[in-house]
Amino acid sequence: MISQxxxxxxxKNPTELLIDCGGVGYEVKISLNTYSAIGPEEAxxxxxxxxxxxxxxxxxxxxTKEEREVFNLLISVSGIGPNTAMIMLSSLTPDDVxxxxxxxxxxxxxxxxxxxxxxxxxxxxxxxxxxVKISTxxxxxxxxxxxxxxxxxxxxxxxxxxxxxxxxxxxxxxxEDQSVEELIKGALKLL
Length: 191
Prior knowledge:
Layout: E1 4-12, E2 16-21, E3 24-30, H1 32-37, E4 43-52, E5 57-62, H2 65-75, H3 82-91, H4 94-102, H5 106-110, H6 117-138, H7 147-158, H8 163-172, H9 180-190
Parallel strand pairs: 3-5
Antiparallel strand pairs: 1-2, 1-4, 2-3, 4-5
């Protein structure tokens, strides 16, 4: 498998890149989010997913590992192929996709071209439990160097509260010296 390319950016288009790695040019399909994140510099490192079909070997590229992980989860859902997953990641950021799935927001997912109501519901049902692990790992929770905050966040999310709301509430509380139980009690008073 090709999981990362590190080379020289030859060509950049909104839907694909051409990257020279040791004299071999790799054509990589990308989302609009990845396109916006890649700057004008010549040296590039991009995370990839190789999809092999009967008629083609397709390389999909992502600016972050989290975007690649969301892509892998999306293509695991029946009815979502790589092109539809790339359209989703071009329309929404990986965090937006995760939030829509976690909150059961069928309208947001259905608003993406090529996704109907049944497919949107299937995405939510199939990925709701899986996407929580990714979104909590990709957030900057550990920038606070506080595992109690992380544990409290997970506990409150398991109670059904919205992650962004919990983050806002925990930002208001001094999380440095409090136990997990104290953080949860304090957050519940503000939620």
